[in-house]
Amino acid sequence: MSAASVEDHAWARIVTDAPQHRPVRVALCYEPADDPGAVRFSFASGRDWTFPREVLETGLRSPVREGDVEVWPCGRAQAVVEFHTADGVDVLQFDTRALTRFLTHTYAAVPTTTS
Q1: How far apart (Å, rounded) are the C-alpha atoms in residues 1 and 60?
Q2: What pTM did the predictor assign?
Q3: Residue 19's pLDDT is what?
């Protein structure tokens, strides 16, 4: 029996030094058949970021960075996700509820495994 894929959508705010934050819709994807330990954030621009599911979960409670992705809590109701590239850094702020709901859906599809 194969695990089901998960795709949720969330609004994020692009954080810049400009006075206004621009909202962006992000597809939060989980394809356990491809990699049960990874999640993917997909943007309308065609850019995708794949990183460990554990990084997202840990980052909701305390700062964590692995590779080009950094996640940390921002107050009680928000989380920040940074994506680092050779061209710079994309900083997005999410409502924690949307990310927690997504993680809950991924764990319903494939529970955490301990090694």
Answers
A1: 31
A2: 0.86
A3: 64
